[in-house]
Amino acid sequence: MKLVVIALTGLAVSGCATVTRGTTAPVTVNSEPAGAQATTSLGLTCPSTPCTFEVSRKSEFVVSFSKPGYEPQQVPVATKLAGAGAAGMAGNILVGGIIGIGVDAATGATLEHFPNPVFVTLQPLGKPVSQSRRRAAPKPKRVAPAATPALEAPAS
Questions:
Q1: What are the residues whose beta carbons fall under 8 Å from the beta carbon of 55, sequence distance 6 or more?
Q2: CA gap 137, 1 in Å, rounded
Q3: Among 7, 23, 50, 60, which residue has the fewest nearby CB atoms (within 10 Å)?
Q4: Is residue 59 within 8 Å of 107, Cβ to Cβ?
Q5: Vertex 44 angle, CA 47 and 41, to 5°
Q6: How confident is the model at residue 148 (pLDDT cuts 50, 70, 90)?
Q7: Paired sense of beta strands 73-81 and 118-121, if any
C-alpha cells in the first residue's frame, strides 16, 4: 500500500511532459558555406558550423552567424507548444492534475524550438574594386587585312 501511495505522489508532483520529454532539447545550427561561427544570445558558442546546442525548452534566443568574407546574420529562435507537449498536458489532466500542469508550464517541457534546425545562407561581402586592382580595358586586337585575290590580266 505504501508503494502505491509513493508512486501516486510521485506522479502528482511531476509533470507528464517533464518526465517524458525533459526540460532541455537539442537545437542544430548550420550554414552555407559550413564553417561559420555561431553564437547564441544565451552565451553558447560553436566555433564551426554545423553543430548542436543543448538548450532549455523554454528559452527563446537569437543565433548570430559570422565568417570572414561574409555578411554576419542573425536568426531568432522562438518556442511553440509541441504536439508531444500537448499530449503530456493531457496526461497531466488524467494523472498529474494541477501540480503536473504547473510543473510542465514552469519547466517549459511542453515547448519546442522553431526553427530547428536553424539554417542560413551567408552572403559574400561586397568588396569594392581598388584602383590598383582594376583591369585596364582590353586593347583591341589588330587583325591583318584579308588577302585579296590577284587580278588577272585580261586575255587578249
A1: 24, 25, 26, 27, 40, 42, 44, 61, 113
A2: 94
A3: 7
A4: no
A5: 115
A6: low
A7: unpaired
- 59 Cβ contact partners less than 8 Å away, ≥ 6 residues apart: 42, 79, 108
Q: How much of the chain, in percent, has pLDDT values that exceed 90?
A: 42
Cβ proximity of 77 and 115 under 8 Å: yes
The size of the chain, in residues, is 156
Closest of 123, 125, 118, 124 to residue 46, by C-alpha:
118
Burial (0-12, 13-18, 19+ Cβ within 10 Å), 96: buried
d(CA 47, CA 11): 41
Task: Check if the beta carbon of residue 65 is closer than 8 Å to that of residue 37.
Answer: yes
Summarize pLDDT for 113-129 with one digit per residue, the tens.
999 999 999 999 986 54
